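Entry 14. Structure prediction run on the chain below.
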Amino acid sequence: MGAHRRTSGLPAAVTRKTSGLLAAVTRRTSALLAAVTPRTSGLLAAVAIVWAGSAGAEPLDLHDPTPRWIRVSFEASPGDQPAQRDAFWGEPLRAWLRPAERPGWVVVAIPPEVVEGQLMVHQDPVPGTFGPMVWVFDARTGHVLSADLEGSVYRRLRLGFLKPRLRAQVRFEMGTERVAGFRSPRQVLGLEVFEHCTAQDDPDCTLVPPAAFDPSTGYVNAVGQVDAEAKGFASTSFSSLGEARFSEDASPVMARRGPTLP
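Output returned:
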């Protein structure tokens, strides 16, 4: 009888421990989402080169709305330095410029295949989920009215011997007309998390100043947030993916026809 009691009690213990572990997974899932991109511009550091600014490249003429291919490079400082600006630069990526429907506005779109194959390649993107990264400029003021990107990435949870794979939907929203910042980092499953904030009177909020387009260098710093959602949980982190340099494309072999965008 004693052996029977111990044996019959084992499943109950396993069930209790399993449910407790699943609860821990659930609690940590939402926290992990905040760590989807600790410093989003740092993802370009994995391109394996450090590009020394725009040497030899002509800054983008934002006042020329002629449809054409241009180049965009992104700041690629380490992920644990979200406030560092204009230090390390990734490889220039191709993008398509065209006039917007509203006079004085210009649209720059980085094609989906470039987003997944280069910009987000080391963030484990879910194939076919990313659309173009779309920038909307006011050519008269140089302000980035919006810089948006949306898609899905995979993340691997670290829970002892369990390493479940999580699919998260992410959306980046940035601009230069409003300030944004980050809170002191938190450790979540071995990753540093920088939560998004905007309050100027919050002593734990480090604000990163935006910078409108500089016609002499092509530099812009659009700040904002990245929203992540998975399994019904959501979080918002600071995004510095909007720090970039725009230049004219001097390549004689680049086709003049624009990309097919969704």
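The chain has one domain: 2-248.
Filed with the rest of this week's runs.
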